[in-house]
Amino acid sequence: MKKIVVIFFVSVIINLNAQIQVKINDKPVVENQTIEAKDIKKMDISFSNPQKLQPNTDGKARLYVELLGLDNKVVEGYTVEKEGVNAINSFLTMSKSYILYEEGGENKTFGFTYLAPPTLKAMLEQVGTKETNKVIKVKVYLTFRDKMVDKYQNVTYGDYFDLLPVFTFKINNQSVDGTIQLLGTDIKLSAEKLKPLNYVKQEVDENYFLTKERNPLLTNSKVVRCSFKSQKHAHHTAVFVNVMDLDSKTQDAVINELKTQFETVLVNVSNFCNSDVAKLAKEKIDHWNKIMDYNEPKFIVTSLDKKYNKEFDREKIMEPMEIGLFKGYKFSQMVTTRSCDNSAINTAGHETLSPEIAKILQAAAKSEADSKKVERVPYGTVSVYFMKHPKNSKKVIMLFSHDDNHKETMETAKEFKTFIDSFIGCFNF
After folding, report:
1. Which of 111, 199, 343, 367 is the most exposed place for a label (fewest CB within 10 A)?
2. Is the pLDDT of residue 27 over 80?
3. Distance between first and last Cα of the chain
4. Are residues 294 and 242 in the same domain?
5. Any idea what the Cα angle at residue 256 is, between residues 254 and 262, rounded to 5°?
């Protein structure tokens, strides 16, 4: 009887020690504890006494950290996986701590399962810009799946099963001052002011402006893409923000240079079909492609097209702007598709025109030749803003968007300009 009791207690002790352990800043986390994201400087994970496998068992052993939002959707996952009998045996029996994050360094131990920023902290900042990710549930698994080889040497794997109980805790990912950081910048966004704009999320594109395309004035290749639910179409409206360093130039000098270049390129693009208007070299336009239309611009600004406005070269293009602390220049106008012969409209990958509209355009082109002012199809609104950074005289801010809407009107274009102004009104420091 005593022997049975001893065995029972030994078994209980082993089971109690069979666990996944998470440490934040070298302090153990308790199951279901809530940790403040701002306090995380280090996170490491270890485990002990997992379920034993049969000798020489082959397959895949995996330590997996899953992060989920309030909607229970996975926002990120980190994995350490071992394959092969010896590697699995060492992995499961060796006492080791796996560092998922340490302030000042990138994650070198865990592999990403999604397109994650280089650190846990950066990832939390990024996903925290979405309302459903204000609280993150973290689930840590230690799992295994068997490797099976049939007589034809075909390899398959079984389902994952847990080698230890899943460990769960939460991260409070909310900002304490009611703002959302504009990723990779010193700009903050007022969460309250963003709500009526139907803000969804933001993402960083590290190499939006490729080196070979980049204008010398565009000193930062990185942009922040902010997404908003649109009332006009199914896909999100994207607004891009780029913060540039000035090197040795002043804010006024850089903004004026950007304004001059942009206006020149916009005139050039709008006169694509007019052979009597001098054209810029292709490389001069390439710098601006992703700012105006993501790729090669396929639109015109009617007031800048010589065929439609003989005094196009007298048009005021960018206008002074002042929104809160921000001063600079802005352009926000409805644009249309371009067509050099007026018999077909280049829709740049969008839906083709209805037969009725096509017939009208073709008839007009035949009867009035190329000089006829045929109404072109709307192609949305292009908005470009150049602004002085109000808190750092060594930086300027560029904001741009092309809301491609084929049902655009002067009224909806005006509404989009108001929307962009309202977004800038959310900026804070």
Report:
1. 367
2. yes
3. 72
4. yes
5. 100
